[in-house]
Amino acid sequence: MNLTLKVWRQKKADSRGRFIEYQARNVIPNMSFLEMLDVVNEELMGRGEEPIAFDSDCREGICGTCSLVINGIPHGGRRGTATCQLHLRHFKDGDTITIQPWRARAFPVVKDLVVNRSAFDRIIQAGGFVSVSTGGAPDGNALPIPKEAAELSMDAAACIGCGACVAACKNASAMLFVAAKVSHLALLPQGKVEKERRVLNMVKAMDAEGFGNCTVTGSCEAACPKEISLDFIARMNREYGLALLKK
Amino acid sequence: MNLDARIPSGPLDKKWDRHRLEMKLVNPANKRKFDIIVVGSGLAGASAAASLAELGYRVQCFCFQDSPRRAHSIAAQGGINAAKNYQNDGDSIYRLFYDTIKGGDFRAREANVYRLAQVSVNIIDQCVAQGVPFAREYGGFLANRSFGGAQVSRTFYARGQTGQQLLLGAYQALCRQISLGAVEMYPRTEMLDVVLVDGHAKGIIVRDLISGEISSHAADAVVLATGGYGNVFYLSTNARGCNVTAIYRAYKKGAAFANPCYTQIHPTCIPVSGEHQSKLTLMSESLRNDGRVWVPKKKGDARPLQSIPEAERDFFLERKYPSYGNLAPRDISSRAAKEVCDEGRGVGPGGLGVYLDFADAIKRLGADTIRERYGNLFDMYQTITGENAYQTPMRIYPAVHYTMGGLWVDYNLMSNIPGLFVLGEANFSDHGANRLGASALMQGLGDGYFILPYTIGHYFASAKTAKPSSSHPEFKKAEEEIKARTNKLLSIRGQRTVTSFHRELGKLLWDKCGMARHEAGLKEALQRIPALRQEYWENVNVTGEGGELNQALEQAGRVADFMEFAELLCLDALMRRESCGGHFRTEFQTPDGEALRNDEHFSFVAAWEYQGPDKPPLLQKEPLTYEEVKMAQRSYQ
Questions:
Q1: I need a labelling partner for B184 at 20 to 30 A (CA). Which of A80, A107, B299, B541 fits?
Q2: B398 in the Ramachandran plot: left (φ > 0), alpha (ψ -120 to 50) or beta?
């Protein structure tokens, strides 16, 4: 199959970017979307042109490195799928595909399709952990945790920190990302001890990074490659309210 | 070269306790005077960086990913072993130790493995305390599953994302230390060389991947936790960025490289679909708990699989290894799959695949139970192949997955270069010639949380060397060399892309030094690699410039190191005239096709010492002596 790509090219963080058209020739339905870009890049380099810069690493949907807004939708719009897991069998021969980086003030473009997501790390640093040092932990079975709580906590903990939720949101809100971490830890007894501090500090850090507000449109949940539920945002709002009252 | 493993004396089960008592300590107030560089932020690197910072050391942590949370440990699926014996099925520290030694085909160091089994129980406790959401039973207690190479159920897991959850636990501990100012984190920064001053490792040279700037960082010790070298084969289950550069650079600075030929081929991966393939995807081996592996008994059986009756299906693992069945260790299962495919009984395109069939398990347990256990793996399989494995069996084929070899380290996890410590997959120490499932996570975290924090203090208290400034001439010299090499790569402007070279190198290694190796093939590879390397340095085309984000340049540097390292890998495979674990020489096998060790001549760790660019490396041997276990022919029948 042959595809036409309109790809965002931007030399540096402070330079002007624009769309440039490329042809992906003789690609096959079993290829992943990123393998198709590899093919295009090989051809570009063969002509001595600079390849399209994009992030990827594990290429199996778990590291959260790949990004790309494909035809206006982060990760391309297949449910529960990161860009690296998107295959060309979901496109048609002759399609024109637009490819852009994540768009958010808190995720500045580094080059072409690569963005800087270190704001997420700083939010976790503000409180997304249990304050336990190595050594001295009690036996793993000393604290029984209901299976349901562990499972729900795991649903939230499955977040890969890719930032699709931010890219999908018209306000570039990071609520789903932050809610996932707050919920993961607040649902477990280990995380309950410092849950008020955690939610207050993480929300503060989120606001300081310049992420927008949440209007609960649910576009984040729809774009999330791990299908993290919007319910966690409700849970975080409750945790936040309770923490404010306790303060 | 000094290859003293510094194994403490005394009975096996007392060595670590005794060693901890005998090691020198650094007073808490003095710890803040020591700077430690940790390269890598996976399970080993993040756990080490966090634990060292908690103790009071000043830590700088480097990773090439855009966030420390993205290190490749995140992709580990199945689980982590620990000798908790929560299932009351006869597990013990000794049994985990013995299974690991036996699984490694008696090519690992006894004392290290015993210690690993000892700390395994602490790892689970630590991770639970961090909030890792392990799977639980209805009573609220931790659940276990069984894994290849073991007859007890000792594997802890978090769905099919155990590596992710353990890494996030370590990452969060690291983030806490970053927020406290105890760790300085350098993401998107690649280590390109290690710097020695007066024979001690005292710093590294790095490239900022965004600005392209090359800079020096000095410290009192350097810790490499930079993972394995499976990507030398081009196609592997490793992430795209995984590379050998950090440990290969250390090797060129004098660190011994041990057992490079011990590479693991994982039996349950999704088969290759075409030339464009950029990486292979692993399906957790835990699938073999409930899936049955088979191929048609008849060669070239073209019938649709539903119409092949049970009697005409060859469940070859159950047939050949009745007591372990589908849970036979990875090396054995992989070779068995290759064997039936070589006989022409493989399934799927090109005949390079075998079925992993869940029909019986679904009948016995119901689709819901299977979904609960492996749902995300079935989804992953469907995403990639477009097939629904609840209805039709998966097709799997072996792929390069893990490398047991790595830099040589002593009992303290220090290489033969004083002050250079190596953790996790980057070292060679615990898995011998073959790693058992769910043991990589155990080793990475064991090294980082519970071993290095003790042993590094002993080095500081005994070595008493000063920290040089990063403007020391050795740093300047190393920086200049790196800049010259970068400029050279950018100035060739040849006809072929980096990937085309990498793919060719990988194919050559897979054919000649992959699942089965023999003398003639290895000699051929040793002829062809230098030629390919020469062509690389004359004809590679690296676009762009050095002073910017340049992914082609990053890749070019890594492939240049693979081009040299591949030769070392083949040389080691040629030298080891026996079969053991993941290293299978076709000349050395038992009458029924199993690996045939030669304990008389090869019961040693092969540690290679770099001699210079045009000289072959020197082989040094660390003899393996077993005080506790009896070496036996590994049998899983």
A1: A107
A2: beta
Domains A3-111 and A117-132+141-246 share a fold: no
CB count, 10 Å around CB of A225? 27
Residue B215: enclosing H or E segment and its boundaries? strand B214-218
Same domain, B396 and B408: no
- Asked whether the predicted pLDDT for residue B146 surpasses 90, the reply is no
- Position B377 scores a pLDDT of 87
Are both B208 and B287 inside the same structural domain? no
What is the Cα–Cα distance from B54 to B463, expressed in whole angstroms? 22
| Spatial separation of the C-alpha atoms in residues A200 and A194, rounded to whole Å | 10
B48 and B76, same domain (yes or no): yes
Phi, psi of B501 (to 5 degrees): -70, -45
What class does CATH assign to A3-111? alpha beta
- Of the residues B276, B495, B502, the best mutation for testing chain A's interface (the one with the most A CB atoms within 10 Å of its CB) is B276
> Touching check for A8 and chain B: CB below 8 Å?
no
Is residue B28 domain-resident? Answer: yes
Banded model confidence at residue B330, pLDDT cuts 50, 70, 90: confident
Q: Does the beta-carbon distance from B134 to A150 stay under 8 Å?
A: yes
At position B235, the amino acid (one-letter code) is L
B349/B415 same-domain check: no
Is B330 assigned a catalytic role? yes
- Three state DSSP letters for B320-383: HCCCCHHHCCHHHHHHHHHHHHHCCCCCCHHHCCEEEECHHHHHHHCHHHHHHHHHHHHHHHHH
Q: How many angstroms separate the CA atoms of A50 and B514, rounded? A: 34
Q: How would you classify the pairing of strands A96-100 and A73-74?
A: unpaired
pLDDT-derived band at B632 (thresholds 50, 70, 90) equals confident
CA dist., res. B407 & res. B610, Å (int): 12
Task: Among B368, B401, B434, give the residue marking a domain's end.
Answer: B401
Instruction: Note whether B47 contacts A: Cβ–Cβ < 8 A.
Output: yes
Q: What whole-number distance in Å separates Cα of residue A109 and Cα of residue B533? A: 36
**Which of B348, B369, B401 delimits the end of a domain?**
B401
> Using CA of residue B239, residue B518, residue B284, residue B100, what is the dihedral sign?
negative
Domain residues for the domain of B284 are: 266-401
**DSSP per-residue string spanning A134-177:** SS-PPPTTSS---HHHHHHHHHHHT-----HHHHHSTT---HHH
Work out the number of other CB atoms within 10 angstroms of the CB of residue A20.
12
In this prediction, residue B637 has a pLDDT band, given cuts at 50, 70 and 90, of: confident
Same-domain status, B98 and B218? yes
* Residue B488, domain member (yes or no): no
The closest alpha carbon to B49, from B453, B417, B408, belongs to B453
- B296 and B213 belong to one structural domain: no
What is the pTM for the complete model shown? 0.96
Are the beta carbons of A118 and B66 closer than 8 angstroms? Answer: yes
Question: In whole angstroms, what is the distance from residue A200 CA to residue A187 CA?
Answer: 16
Identify whether residues B283 and B407 lie together within a single domain.
no
Of A57, A141, A151, the CB nearest to B240: A57
As a whole number of angstroms, the distance between CA B622 and CA B606 comes to 7
Chosen for mutation from B172, B368, B372 (greatest number of chain A CBs closer than 10 Å) is B172
Q: Is the ipTM value over 0.90, yes or no?
A: yes
> What's the CA gap between B274 and A32, in Å, rounded?
11
Select from 1.10.8.60, 1.10.357.10, 3.40.30.10, 1.10.1060.10 the CATH code of A117-132+141-246: 1.10.1060.10
Which residues in B lie closer than 8 A to residue A51 (C-beta atoms)? 543, 551-552
- For tokens 């015993």, the residue is B114
Residue B192 sits in the same domain as residue B243: yes
Return the CATH number at B86: 3.50.50.60
Per-residue pLDDT, B147? 81
Domain boundaries, chain A: 3-111, 117-132+141-246
We report the CATH number of the domain holding residue B369 as: 3.90.700.10
